[in-house]
Specification:
Helix content: over 70%
Order of helices and strands: HHHHHHHHHHHH
Oligomer: single chain
Number of strands: 0
């Protein structure tokens, strides 16, 4: 009786954690697109900088005031040698995501971001000479095929937005791969990750944002009609971006790795549907099919990775295999996942 009750509570907790994760993720994406398209605030570097500042403040409050998570101590030398390079790639990843969101629809951007598993495997194979089972390569076929079909049938295709999203995938993959070597010995969760990386990212991005977009932002202040509501939306997107990172921490500890993978791909479908309902960007039947194929491929890829990790964990003398969902996942869930 008690076991059944505990199991029911665990299931309810997992469902609620997934729903709030979906809610924050979709809301942040829609708000960012709304900022670029409806508010005519076409300054992705500034928006990213606002997100980093809000996340820095939020992470400090979560760790030092709310005590939601203990601070993972990092040596001062390691902050510059390990955290700073990671923050630089992290910054590029977020900025390119916002740049792509300015030029292409949410549905197309989210589908392209699903290409990240393929770029991660290919980078590890080409640069680090890492070998993968045939099942991993087979799982990439529908991902690549779906992306190709989506790209050639996208009715609102923009080459600049497409390239930004693709390079963003490479940045996400690089961040994930570098985390394995640069952050060796540190068990970061999403809150501590933001705590250390967001201030560095703010420092990296502040000067380029001022130089490249400062004059445009000042002009927008003087020409935009409803400045106060617009600023509330922009700052609100930054606050919700931090909440998204907090929700990732919660969902990781409430679900299994397989559930997290499936929920992550369903989240993309939800974001595509909601964005279409709000912005009404044209989506052809073949484009929708390409998106669906990509998501099925991502789900299959995650499942194959889970099976391989289970087999490695069961192997006698295995010490390097993942022991929990946290260790199977990238340092920060990137779906714009994100700050």
């Amino acid at each position: 009786m008690e076991e059944g009750k505990a199991g029911g509570l665990g299931t309810l907790r997992a469902v609620l954690s997934i729903l709030q994760w979906w809610g924050f993720n979709v809301t942040v994406i829609i708000m960012n697109k709304w900022i670029f398209q409806k508010l005519d605030f076409k300054f992705p570097l500034t928006v990213s900088c606002v997100h980093f500042i809000c996340s820095s403040i939020g992470a400090y409050i979560a760790i030092h005031v709310l005590k939601a998570k203990p601070l993972i101590e990092v040596e001062p030398e390691d902050r510059w040698k390990r955290i700073f390079p990671m923050s630089f790639v992290f910054c590029i990843n977020i900025v390119l995501g916002n740049v792509s969101l300015r030029y292409i629809p949410v549905s197309f951007m989210q589908t392209i971001k699903s290409f990240t598993p393929a770029t991660t495997v290919i980078l590890q194979w080409l640069v680090w000479s890492k070998h993968f089972e045939w099942r991993i390569w087979a799982s990439l076929v529908p991902i690549v095929g779906g992306i190709l079909l989506t790209s050639i049938t996208e009715l609102s295709f923009n080459i600049f937005g497409f390239c930004a999203a693709m390079v963003g995938c490479l940045a996400t993959s690089t961040k994930t791969i570098l985390a394995e070597s640069l952050l060796h010995g540190y068990k970061f969760d999403s809150i501590n990750t933001v705590y250390y990386m967001a201030p560095f990212a703010t420092m990296i991005l502040a000067l380029p944002a001022m130089l490249l977009e400062g004059a445009g932002v000042i002009n927008w202040f003087y020409t935009h009609d409803s400045i106060i509501p617009a600023l509330i939306i922009i700052l609100g997107s930054g606050v919700l971006a931090f909440c998204l990172n907090f929700s990732i921490f919660y969902v990781i500890h409430s679900t299994t790795a397989v559930t997290f993978n499936v929920a992550g791909n369903l989240k993309v479908a939800v974001a595509v549907l909601v964005s279409w309902m709000i912005f009404r960007n044209p989506i052809s039947a073949m484009n929708a099919i390409g998106c669906a194929i990509t998501l099925v491929g991502c789900t299959f890829y995650g499942y194959v990775r889970h099976l391989i990790s289970q087999r490695q964990a069961a192997a006698p003398g295995s010490v390097n295999s993942p022991r929990n969902p946290m260790e199977m996942l990238p340092l920060v869930e990137d779906k714009q996942e994100k700050v």
